[in-house]
């Protein structure tokens, strides 16, 4: 029998216990031995919970118990998770975690300890919730060189953008706060939802995927990251008219010869016919391009209790099947160069207030549509780098007629840029 401890009895931790109970018979058969939870670490009390007798507040009980062969971490956050898991590995206990912050920051180090100790550090649930993506990158695609990764990697923001799109198209308006509250109620959002909204959660997940694709450590903070807080219903409506939908995309290009990646997390317009445009609600997708395989897409529920717990439990089964055998992961501590985010120019949608003829006389644009409000319009320009887009914005707003009105002047000879969003192609 393999005895395990779960650290954290929140959404994912309680889901892990639930999945182990629900599918106990088949899981035990697949692991070739029974898997039983001996401890659940949590500071909170859970009166009346059927697993209350397993609860402990003392991590040392778990650490000092030689019967525990696998520690399952579902607490989230860098500390104390990092300290606990490093101690567990050093004591010869395999570790399974869903904690993307921890894996992005300390993955290389924890993998190397697991390798030295001939045990395992497994983290399938850290990216894409229930989607198998870590194992495919580490096993199925080892014959290839991955050149591009593009993912909808955050369920909360995809849920918010999907609901904003539905409500904007139906009524012309949407309440960001109400939609975020619904995502929180369903257990999708982080304890600090700013990590979701500002794109940091997606950047951590992209860093993990890039580390596995390059075999090197990527500092997620070096990835240019912008979230969805500036996206307005008017952007969504204008994009829809031009044939696009708005998605928070984590995208990267890898140059293996130069040991370089160009990566960014930002809202982008995805053409409605692209497979990533069909990824709605809490679903995630990871679009992978390799020199040999060409294009692949992985799709499924990116957040939520049971899909994430299912991925954790599958790792537990793998850890139990390989108790004294290290599954090698291609991820060292050597760094990779991170190219400026602006290395790849892209076409952009601009939303502006101003006369169409005036704008057309100042730029070479391919498409105009009228915007959500009277006097607003949207158009596509580029390909442009961020610097080009800034310069174009300045060129557009300059007044030929000597208007000295304030920025935001609605005079007939003035143009105001309201927003601009890159197009993913
Ligand atoms: N907050 C995360 C998300 C949870 O919304 O994707 C899954 O990692």
Secondary-structure topology with pairs:
Elements (H helix, E strand, L loop, with lengths): L1 E6 L3 H12 L1 H8 L3 E7 L13 E2 L2 H5 L4 E6 L7 H10 L3 E4 L2 H18 L3 E2 L11 H7 L5 E7 L2 H17 L4 H10 L8 H4 L2 H15 L9 E2 L7 H10 L1 E12 L4 E12 L11 E8 L3 E8 L3 H17 L15 E2 L7 E8 L2 H7 L4 E4 L5 E9 L1 H12 L18 E8 L2
Parallel strand pairs: 1-2, 1-4, 2-3, 4-5, 5-6, 8-10, 10-13, 10-17
Antiparallel strand pairs: 7-9, 7-11, 9-10, 11-12, 14-16, 14-17, 15-16
Helix pairs in contact: 1-12, 2-12, 4-5, 5-10, 7-8, 7-11
The structure holds L-homoserine.
L-homoserine binds next to helix 7.
Q: Which short descriptors sum up this protein?
A:
single chain; 425 residues; alpha/beta; Rossmann fold; Dihydrodipicolinate Reductase, domain 2; Alpha-Beta Plaits; 3 domains; 11-stranded mixed β-sheet; 6-stranded parallel β-sheet; 14 helices; 36% helix; 25% strand; binds L-homoserine
What's the helix count?
14
Instruction: Report the sheet with the most strands, covering strand number, pairing sense and barrel closure.
Output: 11 strands, mixed
By CATH, the topology of the largest domain is Dihydrodipicolinate Reductase, domain 2
Helix content: 25-40%
Structural class, from helix and strand content? alpha/beta
Low-confidence stretches: none
Percent strand = 25-35%
Shape: elongated
* CATH architect. name of the largest domain: 2-Layer Sandwich
Spell out which ligands are present. L-homoserine
């Amino acid at each position: 029998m393999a005895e395990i401890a779960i650290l954290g009895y929140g959404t994912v931790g309680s889901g892990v216990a639930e999945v182990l109970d629900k599918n106990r018979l088949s899981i035990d058969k697949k692991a070739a031995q029974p898997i039983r939870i001996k401890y659940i670490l949590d500071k909170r009390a859970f009166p009346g919970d059927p697993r209350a007798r397993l609860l402990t507040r003392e991590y040392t009980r778990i650490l000092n118990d030689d019967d525990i062969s696998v520690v399952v971490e579902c607490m989230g956050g860098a500390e104390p998770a990092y300290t606990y898991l490093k101690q567990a590995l050093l004591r010869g206990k395999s570790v399974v975690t869903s904690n993307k912050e921890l894996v992005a920051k300390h993955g290389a180090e924890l993998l190397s300890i697991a390798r030295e100790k001939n045990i395992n550090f497994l983290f399938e649930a850290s990216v894409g919730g229930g989607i198998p993506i870590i194992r495919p990158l580490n096993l199925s695609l080892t014959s290839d060189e991955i050149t591009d990764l593009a993912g909808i990697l955050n369920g909360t923001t995809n849920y918010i953008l999907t609901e904003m799109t539905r409500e904007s198209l139906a009524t012309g308006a949407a309440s960001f706060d109400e939609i975020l509250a619904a995502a929180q109620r369903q257990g999708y959002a982080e304890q600090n939802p700013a990590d979701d909204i500002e794109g940091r959660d997606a950047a951590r997940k992209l860093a993990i995927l890039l580390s596995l694709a390059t075999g090197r450590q990527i500092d997620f903070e070096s990835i240019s990251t912008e979230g969805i807080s500036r996206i307005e219903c008017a952007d969504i409506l204008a994009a829809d008219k031009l044939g696009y939908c708005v998605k928070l995309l984590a995208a990267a290009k890898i140059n293996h010869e130069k040991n370089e990646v160009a990566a960014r997390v930002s809202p982008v317009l995805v053409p409605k016919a692209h497979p990533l445009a069909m990824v709605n609600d809490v679903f995630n997708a990871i679009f992978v391009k390799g020199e040999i395989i060409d294009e692949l897409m992985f799709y499924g529920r990116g957040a939520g209790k049971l899909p994430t717990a299912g991925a954790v439990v599958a790792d537990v089964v793998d850890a139990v099947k390989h108790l004294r055998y290290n599954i090698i992961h291609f991820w060292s501590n050597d760094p990779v160069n991170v190219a400026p985010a602006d290395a790849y120019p892209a076409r952009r949608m601009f939303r502006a207030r101003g006369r169409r003829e005036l704008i057309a006389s100042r730029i070479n644009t391919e498409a105009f549509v009228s915007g959500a409000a009277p006097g607003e319009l949207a158009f596509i320009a580029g390909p442009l780098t961020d610097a080009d887009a800034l310069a174009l914005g300045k060129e557009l707003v300059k007044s030929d007629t000597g208007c000295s009105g304030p920025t935001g002047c609605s005079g007939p000879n003035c143009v105001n840029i309201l927003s601009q969003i890159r197009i993913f192609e």
